[in-house]
Specification:
The protein is an alpha+beta fold. Among the domains are: about 35 residues, no CATH class; about 70 residues, SepF-like protein (Translation Initiation Factor IF3). It is built from 4 helices and 6 strands; from the N terminus they run ααβαβαββββ. A 4-stranded mixed sheet has the order 1-2-4-3, with helices on one face. Strands 5-6 form a two-stranded antiparallel ribbon. α3 links the parallel β1 and β2. The protein starts with a helix and ends with a strand.
Length: about 150
């Protein structure tokens, strides 16, 4: 007979109830089961790699005519920055493309920035444009963009 079995028999003989010990063991088992059940109901923690960010694509387009605009508008809808090179368009087509792209960019909440005589940047609202070319463009209270020379 094991020592613990003899010890329990002695406790039973003197009137100490060994069932209390069994109940305590059962309660501990139930608490452990509940604790395990509770930890299993938690949703798993999501680990996000900080280095893995979505890369932003900048699209460079050189439309030849107004018929190329629908593909450029798809980029605006997808919130991609677009560099418009209007060198190969004639003057009338250049103005139509620029007007339409300005409207599409404005409608999506973005902004247009002139880079050179025939090159423009159309950027969504999530892209900040820093102009370090010597001109600062500001917005007046009506929402119109004002160009102010740096020395003024």
């Amino acid at each position: 007979m094991s020592e613990t079995g003899l010890w329990r028999k002695m406790l039973d003989f003197f009137g100490f109830d060994s069932n209390d010990d069994n109940e305590n063991e059962e309660r501990e088992d139930q608490v452990e089961e509940n604790a395990v059940g509770f930890s299993n109901t938690k949703r798993p923690q999501q680990i996000v790699d900080i280095r893995q960010r979505q890369q932003m694509k900048v699209v460079v387009v050189q439309p030849r005519s107004f018929e190329d605009v629908p593909t450029m508008v798809e980029h605006v809808k997808a919130r991609r920055p677009i560099i418009l090179n209007l060198d190969v368009c004639d003057a009338k087509g250049r103005q139509r493309v620029l007007d339409f792209m300005s409207g599409a960019t404005y409608g999506s909440g973005g902004r247009m920035q002139k880079i050179s005589e025939c090159i423009f940047l159309s950027a969504p609202s999530t892209v900040q444009i820093d102009n370090v070319t010597g001109e600062i463009s500001e917005e007046d209270p009506t929402g119109k963009r004002l160009a102010v020379k740096k020395g003024e």
